[in-house]
User: What shape does this take?
Amino acid sequence: MRPHEIEFSTFEGGIFTDLVPYQYGREVCVPGHAFGPARRSHYLFHYIIEGSGSFTAINDAGEQRIYDLKAGEGFLIFPGQITTYVADLTSPWEYIWIEFDGSHVKSSLDRMGFSPAHPIYRATDPAVRSEMFDAMKNILSHRDSSPVYLVGCTYFFFDAFLRSAEPHRTTQPSRLHGFYIDSALGYIEKNYQHDVSVEDIARHIGLNRSYFGKIFKESMGVSPQQFLIGFRMEKACELLKLSSLSVGEVGRAVGYPNQLHFSRAFRNTYGTSPRTWRQQHTVR
Assistant: This one.
């Protein structure tokens, strides 16, 4: 590809929920080429193939931060986040990107510590990073393939992305802490549909709530309460989109016996009511 050259495509087979691509492309930028400020509706990952540039993002606290990035690194844009990115004046970057979303994306990113405050991708395993890059190229070069094939390639990409990424953690957890966190995540996955609390999770793994909250936040980047709510909301979205259950039944199925409490938590997470969300996302 030659400057300024771009290729991209959009995905038309929107019948999937767990993981789905929305658009994908590749661009060789001219010096100083900028995009933004802009806000996205889905997750958008850029992997830098050559050159360098800067990525400016505003986190959940409203703070702006600028990251200088080079080939082999990448940046992840979160839904609703305002960002700007600019190619270097002397060594402008070439990047490949994929916009994606799905019901299990947020929980997977949470486990790695990715967030609007921690959006930078750096690899711990170059070989797996190459697998990720190959998967992204494969999606772009097979843009006319069937939706099932493209979704399959997106799974390969996301798997390699997670396996190769450097976790964003403020401290390196001990093996014992890792055992506690894994036990907590397993308990949440098995019991989120019941009226369980953070105290129940801490009691199950044998820790007091305060200490459990401390090591969970250090490892996961969010509090246990935030993670539990996010996990339940993702499951609620699946049921709203794929089932005919009423809003109250969906709430009870994800651990909210009180429909008002469920609707309030859903609105706080997604900015809209469960009923409106269902109308906007149900495949007809």
User: Anything to note?
Assistant: The chain has ten helices and ten strands. Residues 170-174 have pLDDT under 50 and may be disordered. The two ends are 39 Å apart (CA to CA).
